[in-house]
Design goal:
Blueprint (H helix, E strand, L loop, with lengths): L3 H8 L4 E4 L2 H6 L9 H7 L6 E5 L2 H13 L4 E4 L16 E4 L6 E4 L6 E4 L4 H9 L3 E2 L12 H7 L6 H4 L8 E7 L7 E5 H4 L11 E7 L2 E2 L4 E7 L2 H13 L4 E7 L1 H6 L11 E7 L4 H10 L3 E7 L13 H11 L3 E3 L2 E2 L5 H11 L3 E2 L1 E7 L2 E6 L2 E3 L3 H13 L3 E2 L7 H4 L6 H10 L16
Parallel strand pairs: 2-4, 3-4
Antiparallel strand pairs: 1-2, 5-6, 6-10, 7-11, 8-9, 8-10, 12-14, 12-15, 13-14, 13-19, 16-21, 17-20, 17-22, 18-21, 19-20
This protein binds flavin-adenine dinucleotide.
Flavin-adenine dinucleotide (FAD) binds next to strand 3, helix 6, strand 10 and helix 12.
């Protein structure tokens, strides 16, 4: 039970709204974990006892101090679009919505470096950047609804990863403003090195109030669809495009069965293994040439900016899974980095799992090398079948990033990051921030 003195104390904090209605507690205790039947079962009962929404950094400090004094768990939440229950309060307590801290504090005209508050939506930040001839390097397919703080703390990459790699690669996150939840909560300014430990730590080791980020020069991305004669050609063309001397922002590969189940919008109506590409204007003719060499058919849809809300990026990354689940919620998914060459692994898995496994691939850059990641759609056949499938993927050389687990480590490489844990001991020694999510921490 939440101590009454804590409620009273929080009710007196200027710039802090308390949300107490049962439907608010329910709504802000969930995220998009329902993509995983495993997590659905584990998290359905989790509820916050109180939800708070600060409007100032000072109010964040007061919440941290009050939760610390009363030893109450505090779970941070941006827009709650995470897929692994990242913002679900496992041990109840207080959920803090960061969405009112949303100012873009500065954008450097010369370097494009942005300083932005953590609750700013990626779409709003991107719009501000466009006034400076800049854009975000990386964004999730939830870029319209997700916050920048939630993306850094809970996301990994997405649109742009084919060129810019992943969020934890050095160079994206240049610094953080953080509130601690130790004896006497403070506001700290961390440089890029110290900020790394909070990058993808699920808000377990510090409350991010502002971020310093590198950005890219704006490109007028062109939408291109390429329909291929067969699956092998589609994978081959994706490899050729992502290693060509062209500016590429998205390289999604979908097997025909997936294409048939996606919204058709105004895309060409063909049943074919398909590439969805975002490329620079000067790259369209090169993609056309590469496609023709392989007997594939290209459709140039024009500039992305002209198509609001139904662009190719809304069919990519986990939006592919979203659309299939809207048709049939029995679909779930996996995430993996494929071994090179990829075809043997793709063929073997298809042979074993047939129509229960549909291929969705994304071109990515991993540690400086062009690779192919897979987010296959998987028909739910129970936990045992899922474990068998993941084991077979590993045996074939794929690196699994399991979206059916709760901890930072479980969803990553399975190893404890000592810097993340040391930072938690320093900034949250009582273990109050998002308890249960950092596997390497015990107090
Ligand atoms: C359809 C769909 C598609 C998706 N596509 C992608 C994708 O392409 N790439 C990708 O990486 N993810 C993807 N995701 C997951 C998710 O949408 C993104 O990671 C998104 O950026 C999370 O932002 P959010 O504001 O919703 O964060 P939330 O879900 O609210 O929070 C995520 C984590 O960050 C922590 N957190 C939030 N704010 C703070 C803060 N201020 N300080 C410290 N910790 C904080 C939370 O405690 C939680 O652990 C997708 C999800 C869905 C449902």
């Amino acid at each position: 039970m939440l101590p009454d003195p804590l409620r009273t104390e929080l009710a007196a904090v200027p710039g802090l709204r308390l949300l107490t209605q049962p439907e608010e507690l329910e709504r802000f205790s969930r995220d998009a974990y329902d993509y995983s039947p495993v997590l659905q079962k584990r998290l359905a009962h989790c509820r916050a006892e109180l939800v708070v929404r600060p409007e100032t950094v000072e109010a964040v400090v007061r919440v941290a101090a009050a939760c610390r004094r009363h030893a109450v768990p505090l779970t941070l939440r941006g827009s709650g679009t995470g897929n692994y229950g990242q913002s679900v309060p496992l041990e109840s307590g207080v959920v803090m919505l960061m969405t009112q801290l949303r100012a873009v504090r500065s954008i450097d005209q010369a370097t494009g470096v942005a300083v932005v508050e953590s609750g700013c939506l990626l779409k709003d930040l991107n719009r501000e950047l466009s006034g400076f001839g800049r854009q975000l390097r990386l964004m999730p397919s939830t870029w319209r609804s997700a916050t920048i703080g939630g993306f850094i703390a809970g996301g990994s990459g997405g649109i742009g990863s084919v060129r810019w790699g992943f969020l934890r690669d050095p160079g994206h996150l240049l610094g953080l403003e953080v509130v601690t939840i130790d004896e006497d909560p403070r506001v700290l300014q961390l440089d890029a090195s110290d900020a790394e430990a909070l990058n993808h730590a699920y808000g377990t080791n510090g409350i991010i109030t502002a971020l310093r980020l590198a950005t890219a020069i704006s490109v007028d991305w062109q939408e291109v669809v390429v329909d291929c004669p067969d699956w092998r050609t589609a994978v081959d063309l994706a490899r050729r495009c992502s290693s060509a001397a062209i500016d590429l922002h998205l390289c999604t590969v979908l097997e025909a069965a997936v294409v048939e189940m996606l919204p058709s919008w105004d895309l060409p109506r063909r049943s074919a293994d398909r590439l969805l590409l975002l490329v620079a204007p000067d790259a369209v003719s090169t993609v056309q040439r590469l496609a023709s060499d392989l007997g594939a058919e290209l459709t140039h849809l024009g500039a992305e900016a002209a198509r609001h809300g139904s662009g190719l990026r809304e069919l990519s990354w986990n939006h592919t899974t979203l659309h299939l689940r809207q048709r049939d919620p029995e679909w779930t998914y996996l995430q993996m980095l494929l071994p090179q060459p990829e075809m043997h692994c793709l063929d073997m898995l298809k042979r074993s799992w047939g129509d229960d496994l549909l291929w969705h691939l994304e071109g990515v850059r991993q540690q400086g090398v062009q690779r192919i990641a897979a987010l296959p759609l998987v028909r739910w056949r129970g936990e045992e079948a899922l474990e068998q499938l993941m084991q077979q993927c590993r045996d074939l050389g794929a690196l699994i990033f399991n979206p059916h687990v709760l901890t930072v480590e479980g969803g990553g490489l399975g190893v404890v990051d000592a810097d993340q844990v040391a930072t938690k001991h320093r900034y949250d020694p009582a273990g109050l921030l998002n308890p249960g999510k950092l596997g390497g921490f015990s107090n």
